[in-house]
Specification:
Length: 395
Amino acid sequence: MERAVLDRVTEPREDVPFGVYVHWPFCLSKCPYCDFNSHVRHVAVEQDRFARAFATEIATTAERIGRRTVSTIFFGGGTPSLMKPETVGAVLDAIARHWTVAPNAEISLEANPTSVEAERFRGFRTAGVNRVSLGVQALDDDSLKALGRLHTAAEAMAAVGTARKIFDRYSFDLIYARPGQGVAAWASELRRAIAEAAEHLSLYQLTIEPDTPFEALERAGKLAVPGDTVARHLFDITQEVCAAAGLPAYEVSNHARPGAECRHNLVYWRYGEYAGIGPGAHGRLLDAAGGRFATATEKRPEAWLANVEDHGHGLVVDEAVTRPEQADEFLLMGLRLTEGIDPKRFEKIAGRPLDPARIADLMSYGFVETMPNGRLRVTRSGFPVLDAVVADLAA
Ligand SMILES: C[S@@+](CC[C@H](N)C(=O)[O-])C[C@H]1O[C@@H](n2cnc3c(N)ncnc32)[C@H](O)[C@@H]1O
Ligand code: SF4
């Protein structure tokens, strides 16, 4: 692990919002579609020991970057709702000891919607969490079973009801483009979901990830996801149904009432600064000279724990991000947003303007558009080919 020489970008650090991501890497079982850093343990996880290690890694990160005002904190996983409220509280205390937590900070936690986990919601609220994101995934039991989920639809809706009583803000996730799912069935499921969703929904198209059981099943011809044309219709109907219900997309897969967007995820997409704490967490840290560093920690939970206990951190990647790399990342993240990107900020980061010929070309295909405020964004027809659009603009 070596720190390369900095490549300076002249963005005042105080203009860049700062968030903290905390990764809890354990789940009760592994879902067959998931390739996130999540692990199943058949012995009790030593939560006190993990809490101490989280606090150590937070202290080491704070020592490195200095004072910050934390605008958002996100407990992601894995299944953070398996954390004891005291563990969550200890992490929040450590963050508050080393940085200033903004009075209106958004503090989110991802929860699996089982009844056992819902029982902890009150404790999470008391610990300081003010927003939960529930992994509902589907609204019928057959689909949930096919996705390998441990909860029923009724249990998930009961957890949503508990979240509604305890938290001012909650969101839930659904996975669509599931095997055999048609457009009409999805539209009706989505309308039922919207009736339960107050302000925010994350709607992910099922992706067949490498080295997952779903990939093996697909290869064996035992699982078929909708083809490109149906997937495109599913995406379009998602946009239409959500927009009509007052939850327009603000990002490719995220929908919210205006003002209820997930501020933590906006830190990523608006290319802010964030610390990644815990096993397999990624960060982007700024130093006093305007350099940006990409960090990543050891993914294996027990190895991460040992590294933190021995060295004060679990970093396995700590690299300066060059200006051209930053420019690419800025496009890759920002063009996911319906607000698009500010070409002037691109120029500041990249040290060169976007190529007007390439923009004109992409406009002629209807993939991007400029907005009256001067921002550049990807259109609805451009979103399905987002990666190609970004690659074209970045080249
Ligand atoms: C990694 S999970 C963590 C939250 C929690 N453990 C859960 O399962 O609800 C975050 C979200 O990623 C989404 N996800 C994970 N793998 C996916 C895949 N292969 N395709 C689409 N969405 C996926 C699911 O909707 C899930 O709610
Ligand atoms: S989808 Fe959620 S519960 Fe399932 S394995 Fe992934 S992180 Fe764990």
